[in-house]
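Sequence design from tokenized structure. All designs in this work follow the same two-part layout: the structure record, then the generated sequence. An example of the structure record is given first.
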């Protein structure tokens, strides 16, 4: 016995969008809240490459992304914003990373801690 199709399947446009394109929240800590997590602050100041590699690995990127991909740190910040639904723009990510690199990477590390990414 054959099934009778009364309604053709329709493509559902827009079902893949998980969040608003502008994000739905702010960063959980500010850019200059380094002293809310002194351990990360000290690691960032004393060994920024170690902290950068750690952040990259934790978000599923190659630990050397910062060194081999032009704009790698900016891409990492944008990925964290996208994963967390954080408001912002690629232009803002670029400015923050270029002018406040240590603070930006410390903020990224705190954010993925607060998001529960191991």
């Amino acid at each position: 016995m054959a099934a009778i199709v009364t309604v053709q399947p329709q493509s559902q446009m827009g079902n893949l969008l998980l969040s608003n394109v502008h994000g739905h929240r702010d960063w959980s800590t500010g850019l200059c809240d380094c002293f809310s997590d002194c351990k990360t602050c000290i690691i960032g100041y004393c060994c920024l490459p170690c902290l950068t590699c750690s952040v990259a690995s934790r978000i599923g990127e190659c630990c050397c992304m910062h060194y081999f991909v032009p704009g790698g740190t900016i891409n990492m910040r944008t990925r964290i914003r996208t994963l967390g639904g954080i408001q912002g723009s690629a232009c803002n990510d670029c400015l923050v990373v270029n002018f406040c690199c240590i603070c930006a990477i410390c903020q990224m590390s705190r954010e993925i801690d607060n998001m529960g990414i191991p």
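The chain has six helices and no strands. We note this feature because it recurs in several other targets discussed in the main text.
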